[in-house]
Every structure is written in structure tokens, then in C-alpha cells.
Amino acid sequence: MSGSPQSDRVPIRLTRRGRVVLVLFAATVTLISLWLTVGPGAMAGGREAHDDPSKPARTVVVERGDTLWNIAADTDPGSDPRVVVQRIIDLNGLGGDPTVQPGQELRLPAR
Fold this sequence. Notes:
mainly alpha
């Protein structure tokens, strides 16, 4: 039927840019929904998984001459100090500047 409205329509065609935008939009929506469902703690290092929340948090006051390395070695002598230093940095939010000052109180990871 030449007079029907169906014959006058042109099929929708996506350009390469349109397909890329559509795929990126779908991926973004999927990632945001996963993040909202599972939560930011599901990421590696997102939360301190090794600490037992039922135990009271241990703290230490930084003395003159102390370094994160020394504190980490004293905190958990059987572990790699690099890992313990990173856990102390993460627990105390020292990511931008991991320098400690005398008198500063640091939370320590549970063993």
C-alpha cells in the first residue's frame, strides 16, 4: 500500500558515534547501578577487611623520631612492614601526605 504511513518511514540508523555514545551510556548506567547496589566497600582496599569491628581500635601516639615504618614494624612484627604501613595510611586518611608528627594519634590495624 503506497498510501499507508508505514511505507513513508525510513528505518532508524545509528552512526558510529551514536553507537559509541549508546554503549558508553549503557556501561555508565550499569557501573553506577552496581556501585549503588554493592557499595564502595566491595572495591579492593575500599574498607579495612582485616579489622574486627568488635575489637576496640588500637591507637598510638607518635613520639619524636618515630616513623610509619617503625610503628608498622612494632605493631605487627610478623608481617611485611610495607603492607602494615599502607594499612595505617588507609585507616588514618594519610594518602596525600603520609608524614607523621610528634603527638599525632594514629589508629592501628588489628592483627
